[in-house]
Amino acid sequence: MEGGGLPISRVRRELLYLVEKNATVVVVGHTGCGKTTQIPQYLHRSGWTAEGSKVLCTQPRELVVVSVAHRVAEEMGAVVGGEVGYRASSFEARTDEGGSTSSIEFSTDEALVSLMQRDPLLSPYTVVMVDEAHERSLATDVVLGLLKKVQRRRPDLRVIISSATIDAEALATFFGGAAIVSVEGTLHDVDILYAKVPASSYISEAVDTVVKIHKNERPGDVLVFFPGEEDVSQALELIEEQNDFERQRGGADDLVPLALHEGMPTSKQLQALRPAPRNHRKVVLSTSVAETSLTIDGIAYVVDCCFQRERYYDPITSLESVVTCPESKASAVQRAGRAGRVRPGKCFRLCTREAYESGLLPESSVPEMQRSELSHVVLQLKALGVDNIMSFDWIAPPSAEAMVRALELLHALGALDQESRLTSPLGAHMAELPVHPTVAKPLLVSGELGCVEELLIVAAVMTVKSSVWQLGRGRKEMERQKMKFAVAEGDHVTYLNVYKGFLEAKRSPGWCDRHCVNYNAMMKVLGVKSQLWSALEGLGIKHSSSDKETLPVRKALAHGLFANSAVLSSTSTDGKGRATYTTVRGKVVTKVHESSVLHRNQPKCVLYTRAIQTGPATHEMFEVLAVEQDWLTELAPHFYTSPGVG
DNA sequence: GAGCACTGC
């Protein structure tokens, strides 16, 4: 397909003219208008890739990078790795550094940040297009700030920002008055219908809406968006009850409800993506995975609860919380668009039109940059030569507290010196590792402590976000299986046993199923582990193993995680018999989360990977490591002796 | 008694 019928083709000439005349152009257009696949080809055909120069297009997600590269190559009659290439880590690299012949390259935003550490002026590129900029991921915001900086030294560099929403003005202003071009329309129209009154419970309202669609609307599958996994399972139960009720009345039970969320095994996810049996209507009950990451064919109706869950980092306590809040209009539009992929569809929003139009729903979500822990971003910027982080040209500046926290942690980790300059070699090496600074430091000290192999495994598991554990036949069974691997030293050390078992079982998916281990997560662990090993090897670190000795492993981890410490409270329980802890810094009351192998052990002092607020006054620690309290002052003397702390 | 979603040097 040539893409001639796509909405983007109507603005081709205008777009090319604007790119010629302006340093920066903002393109506004919804998903499906063809901008991602067509704009790079327009640029290619109009001379922007002449004489070995290149056009780069970035995406927030790796999966999209790979699939778009293949689609564009196919449209051009080229092969991936030839005229069209991509940069992605966990997939086989299809372009190499300098000698690549690709005219059009696709990469993730993250990969562009790392590319800029090696080639700050992006010398071979004439145009960089930042796609899906409205998603405002951490990496997107970093890329936008960096590109603006590069443009000052390379006035010839063209930047195209593509966004699905109307915050185009803000983006254009940030780039000193960029040109704006709008792409009207999508492939198919979607009718938007609103609730007449605000719903008292979005779960039952969503289920009622599904039932109404099933009774009154033409055939076509339904996709329902819920904020979280818990909502998905409740809705699933309600629809099954409804089906039972229909059966008893002798009605048709041709409604097929299917859950879809990140935490499910892939086989179950695929089930939700498969077409329903003939004459049945499929209802996919999903979290926001289906908003951007997964595409389901045959969806004609979308039901949107109009809520989403967002993670917030509190720099004062250094703890995170996950809150349910009204979704942004940008998400609402994206979700609705999922109904119009194959033919005109309908979207039922469970908020009122007044609520939508009066500003009760924000235009866009708070950018990740303003609700995240920033030590990794700060370290990256330092490595890119941005000396004064506070005065970096942020498109949305993070809070001063969050930046101070990040600088403080990086200083305590030894990545920055007294003057906040990157230390050498430690800070520079930490910046070269594709993991969070609290994980990079343990990896780097593992050489001296003789436990490189063990740290590679633990760091890989910590970096692969999806849990190593997976529900098999119920929570009880998972608990039972987990205990087979569990050790008193904690979750991180337990991972070593899981990894060992996985290798001894020759990476068998069946073994994983029987032991409630997530096969996909383990395969990713293998990939990340070998990637980390080549990075460490490149830094001159020699391989070693501590075998059955776990003390060096815990010590190495403590070198990175010391800031996340909590001690067992003397007044021991929360009323339900569970021990409470107090974070050493911040003095917040917290508990060991049920998912941890240590949730009954009550060690005196623990380090955690993350602590999340799970209730109004409840914080829980995920991934917990048992340590000796005197390690804290030993490993981070300044951190634990400053006034008012410790 | 159970955690939105992504990614990388």
From TrEMBL:
Ranges where the Helicase ATP-binding domain occurs: 16-184
UniProt xrefs under SUPFAM superfamilies: P-loop containing nucleoside triphosphate hydrolases
Domain Helicase C-terminal: 206-385
PROSITE patterns: HELICASE_ATP_BIND_1, HELICASE_CTER
UniProt enzyme class: hydrolase
Keyword Ribosomal protein among record annotations: no
EC number from the UniProt entry: 3.6.4.13
Pfam families reported in the protein's UniProt record: DEAD, HA2_C, Helicase_C, OB_NTP_bind, WHD_HA2
InterPro entries: DEAD-box_helicase_OB_fold, DEAD/DEAH_box_helicase_dom, HA2_WH, Helicase-assoc_dom, Helicase_ATP-bd, Helicase_C-like, P-loop_NTPase
Keywords linked to the UniProt accession: ATP-binding, Helicase, Hydrolase, Nucleotide-binding
GO molecular function annotations of the record: ATP binding; hydrolase activity; RNA binding; RNA helicase activity
Superkingdom of origin organism: Eukaryota
Catalytic reactions on record: ATP + H2O = ADP + phosphate + H(+)
Record bears the keyword Membrane: no
PANTHER family per the UniProt record, alphabetical: ATP-DEPENDENT RNA HELICASE (PTHR18934), ATP-DEPENDENT RNA HELICASE DHX35-RELATED (PTHR18934:SF136)
Family indicated by similarity: Belongs to the DEAD box helicase family. DEAH subfamily.
Protein name (record): RNA helicase
Native organism: Chloropicon primus
